[in-house]
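Researcher: Structure for this, please.
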Amino acid sequence: MPVRWVRMLLCALGLICAAHTVLAADQPQWGERETRNMVSGETGLPAAFDPATGDHILWSAPLGGGSYSSPIVAGVKVFIGANNTDPRDPRHKGDRGVMLCLNGKDGSLCWQLVVPRTGGDDYLDWPGIGLCSEPTIDGDRVYTVTNRSEVVCLDLNGLANGNDGPYTDEGRHMTPADQPAIEPGPTDADIIWLYDIRAGVGVYPHDSQHVSILVDGDYLYLNTGNGVDNTHVKIRAPEAPSLIVLDKKTGRLVARDGEGIGPRIFHCTWSSPSVGEVNGKREVFFGGADGVVYAFNALSPKMPEAVQTLERTWRFDCDPTGPKEDVHRFSKNTHEGPSEIMGMPVFHKNRVYVTVGGDIWWGKHQAWLKCIDATKTGDVTETAALWSYPLERYSVATPAIVNGLVFVTDGKGTLHCVDAETGQPYWTHDVGNAMWGSALAADEKIYVGSRDGVFMIFAADKIKSVLLSTKFPDEINGTVTAANGVIYVPTLSRLYAIK
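Model: Predicted structure, token format:
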């Protein structure tokens, strides 16, 4: 039997063993399960390593040259977005969005989801970049959103153990429409079902889908990616929803928001939802691209066949003095304009912590970390504000709350440490270039990386203590993941496993 097939068989066996149980030390979803807090319970993690010498580097795997996602770990498998600059399979040639499933022991390929570009309009699916959405693992299923705005449910084992269906047209899906379909092989993804967001709810996405699906019971909650067109001043689909819910078993559309956010979107809908229990009820929290945090009642276990409108429990405008109409007249205005939410809202002890502010490329240079009382109802803009802390430039970060402290990054390249109860600042540190990834709290440490490759570790304490400063040969766009005694650092071109 060829070595490649032996490796595939071992990958499949490892996946089957882990298929029905997600280990406590895994990281099956971006952020802490449900709450989205950027913390991990891992201990014994490395506090020192050197990418240049390979010290403590377990392995590294190539991602092409356009990776902007963060790694997800389930059992012995590691998932991350990549592109097809250096094809891993000679059958797949040309620009593609790719999600890799790697063997956690050595970084070798188990299988990959390969998705051709949308074509026609680069702003619907930006060329050259990898698949940006972080997958969510639930049992033996992998849920993610492709660069073509499709929600896909995948078999954790890939096609190495056969094509499970009901979807069986993987060969056509992985091939551009103007080329003959490829015969699927054991290193390809097994699609169980597929839901086309554009066709299903009429969204017009922008640049690339960045979605981390939230699993709650039998339902998948996800942002739709609705945004501006190539002019950057027009919303093509103003009536489309920003948040939808699908049945995780079938992909059926179950519910959508009715908040009319579309006309107020300044750039794009990139924030993913979280969930928590407030006053005995489960609520879903969503950061709108209009700078408003929305809370909805979580869906009951059995929903009717007709598509429902999510029931809002409260809304909090993080920037009440910002413009709410004709927002695109402020495009490229760095002094005034609307706010948007790009990071995820974190639910912690009946509070919601969220970053909000001007757009990365087109908006004002003003941003904040907000703390909201999640126990109130209605329009709580005036009544639920607990504290507000100013950030430098924009922030796309999701907060990390640990030891009574909040750690958050911003677009100027600063790491902030503030008191979780009061918002009192304790310290800041200039890491370097802009940071698009969030800070990760694990093992009493804070891990951060910047877009010039600088990587730093701090003590998770209100007194600043730098434990490590090193540099990777490439920019770091995603968030560090800790799982099973290993930290995973994603750079633009490689994923590093450090133990």
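Researcher: Any notable elements?
Model: Residues 3-18 form the longest helix (16 residues). The radius of gyration is 21 Å.
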